Amino acid sequence: MSTVSASSSREHRVTARSLQRRKRRGEPFSMLTAYDFPFARIFDQSGVDVLLVGDSLGNTVQGQDNTLPVTLDEVVYHTRMVARATRRALVVGDMPFGSYQVSAEDAVRSAIRLVKEGGAHAVKLEGGRSAEAAIERISAADIPVMGHVGLTPQSIHAMGGYRVQGRSDAGRDRVLADALAVEAAGAFAVVLEGMPADLAREITGRLAIPTIGIGAGVGCDAQVLVMHDLLGLSDWTPSFAKQYANLGAVASKAVRTYVDEVVHRKFPGDEHSYR
């Protein structure tokens, strides 16, 4: 009987179903945002399980104040680059504001574009009970759907800003009901953002599908961070995020050195010139 080595088994593509099996086994997994080919390739080769092409690109890549201006065309464009770079990670395309709120039919059309044109393996959308119909219709089209409840950035105006959700009794009941609705509608996983850790832990225990925390404590089945926060590429890092490197400082030093060498005619040298 042949055996499969640990190294080769790690090369198998992560899927929605394999993540659900990991929850049942109690094995945490990682998710990270990605928006282009070079970083997606690095993250994929480094063992990140899920790459989310988030509408956070509005803040991190476009310099917008929030995610609302991001279009479906833009997410498709970035998803295509990320999908092209990955060999193992599950690629999830984020559905931006306006791509699924009007009708369930619109939601299916948007999800299909992310899969057909962007190469996504799954899609993510925000909302609990309000998103049930969209989740059901997309799932019926055989496209895996990741939900997102709690602090939902596309609802920034309705929430009055980026506010932690579920601190009051009524708020806890609402977030829990939203998470249960997402699961019942057919989502394979759900992001829990910006909520008390004990609430996230309770939701994780109540759901059969994996929970992915961001600002929701360690009790979730998985964790997600925005790559710019993790790598030190943002001007500001939220309190729930951890900066694992400061690439911004490294890049700044490199560019300053380059400018200095150009000004003082140190670059290019003979070794950088053709003969």
Number of domains: 2
pLDDT under 50 segments (min length 5)?
Answer: 1-10
CATH architecture of the largest domain: Alpha-Beta Barrel
Topology order in helix (H) and strand (E) letters: HHEHEHHEHEHEHHEHEEHH
Q: CATH homologous superfamily of the largest domain - what is it? A: Phosphoenolpyruvate-binding domains
Comma- or semicolon-separated keywords:
about 280 residues, alpha/beta, TIM Barrel, 2 domains, eight-stranded parallel β-barrel, 12 helices, 8 strands, about 40% helix, disordered N terminus
Describe this protein's structure:
There is one protein chain. The chain is of the alpha/beta class. The protein has two domains: 10-244, Phosphoenolpyruvate-binding domains (TIM Barrel); 247-275, no CATH class. It contains twelve helices and eight strands. The protein has helices at 6-9, 16-25, 37-45, 57-60, 72-85, 104-116, 132-140, 156-159, 169-185, 197-206, 227-231, 247-263; strands at residues 29-33, 50-53, 90-94, 122-124, 145-150, 189-193, 211-214, 222-225. β3, α6 and β4 (122-124) form a beta-alpha-beta unit. The radius of gyration is 20 Å and the shape is globular. The relative contact order is 0.11.
